Sequence to fold (121 residues):
Amino acid sequence: MTTTLWIIEHLFVKPTEGSLTDVVITADWRCNGSQDQYSGTCYGSASFQPPSGEFTPYDQLTEAQVLDWCFANGVDQKAIEANVTAQINDQINPPVIAPPLPWVEPVVVDAEAPVVEAPVA
Fold:
């Protein structure tokens, strides 16, 4: 089963917006997923309108709060997580592979053969 983790990587703020300071206008987010040794990721940005009601000072923001803003402003959490899961599934069961050419003899390396280095000129 795929495990996903959402993170906020950067916040961009307007130093002043009316009487408010450090108003977040954009958040860069990332959704990482993993399953065993496989991983996938999606990232993007979400922009926000200046607050019209309740305002949380910048130093009191939480990552969960900013992620909620992202989800409320067009970031489709289910679709992003489905994309990350599909990336992982494609690594586990590749939809396209590149088998060896049938007319080319495979090269067999003898693990017992000594390695001889060329002299340095």
